[in-house]
Write a structure and sequence with these properties.
alpha/beta; 18% strand; Rossmann fold; 2 domains; seven-stranded mixed β-sheet; 12 helices; 319 residues; five-stranded mixed β-sheet; globular
Length: 319
């Protein structure tokens, strides 16, 4: 079980870069493809170590995904790296046709997702990616909550390559899982046990959920926290268990709620027998975000510990 560890927050791109180099040093099938984003994708050290294994296509995201699919077709393991909004927005058709439909083993790395590019505004916010990509059959969606899970997600992508989208966070987050943790495909990770309510959180929101659970514990409310590290495939068993074992579910995602994690969880709850359904709150974005720092934006949308505490108390009280 995970808890908030007393360690300084970390930019997951650091863990991504270190792990990618380590994996590539043992497996010459690994290549990186980017869209003139060597710096922002944290690939500088990879380029220096493996200059012949990085392909920079320039600002041409559709070509980038196509190149990645071609490399996968000849047996390589391409990590296709770009800022989340440009990778998933500009190249959505290629992700659909060249990766998901064609079942090419491309590892799509959405760098700096959510509202990590806060001050650059909505053009650089990647908050629609869950909604867009959940609609594509055959594409795994992985959302590591910390550096350890980022490393593990990369290892698994190399050990069992398949069409995959991984969110690589830029906003610094505290560690919430041990380095020895194992991710099981299509399963949430239990971050904290609880009996009154369940918070299902993804990415940056997992540490916020654990903070909220600590606050609520001091108020006599026991909260289960599920780390939704896999959004696709979706852990329907864990959702059904949360509805069976606790009295309410709150979801939290640094993303638009239209078609995202909360919508996916709600769809599962809605199909349970009537006696097993529980009330829900879905936290996330419902509009374009204003311009401001990432912390400001998370606070603005109630995607902080206080917002999660409020949502759990309201749903348990029937408000």
């Amino acid at each position: 079980m995970s808890t908030l560890l007393d360690t300084a927050p970390v930019d997951n791109r650091v863990a991504f870069a270190e792990e990618l180099i380590e994996l590539a040093s043992h497996d010459d099938r690994i290549v990186a493809v980017c869209n003139d984003s060597v710096g922002s994708s944290n690939l500088v050290a990879f380029r220096e170590r493996f200059p012949d294994r990085l392909v920079n296509v320039g600002i041409a995201e559709q070509n980038m995904v196509g190149v990645g699919a071609g490399l996968a077709a000849v047996g390589l393991i391409p990590f296709v790296c770009a800022a989340g909004p440009f990778l998933t927005g500009r190249a959505l058709e290629q992700i659909k046709a060249d990766v998901a439909y064609s079942q090419q083993n491309v590892i799509l790395c959405g760098m700096s997702p959510g509202m990590a590019y806060g001050e650059l505004g909505p053009t650089h916010h990647s908050v629609e990616d869950f909604s867009w990509l959940r609609a594509l059959p055959g594409l795994d969606i992985v959302v590591p909550a910390d550096a350890a899970q980022t490393r593990i997600a990369l290892r698994q992508a190399v050990a069992e390559p398949r069409p995959t989208y991984i969110r690589i966070g830029r906003h610094k987050v505290p560690p919430v899982s041990p380095e020895t943790n194992v991710l099981e495909r299509g399963r949430f990770a239990l971050a904290r046990e609880g009996s009154d309510a369940t918070i299902i959180a993804a990415g940056t929101e997992v540490s916020k959920a654990l903070e909220a659970a600590e606050i609520l514990a001091g108020r006599g409310v026991s909260v289960r926290v599920l780390n939704a590290v896999y959004i696709a495939p979706l852990d329907q068993q864990a959702i059904a268990a949360a509805a069976r074992d606790t009295r309410a579910i709150v979801t939290a995602e640094e993303a638009n709620v239209a078609g995202g994690l909360g919508a996916a969880v709600a769809a599962v709850v809605a199909e349970l027998p009537k006696s097993q359904r529980v009330p829900m709150r879905i936290l996330g974005l419902r509009d374009f975000a204003p311009t401001g720092s990432t912390d400001f934006l998370l606070d603005h949308f109630g995607l902080n510990a206080a917002g999660l505490v409020r949502a759990v108390e309201e749903v348990l009280n029937g408000d």
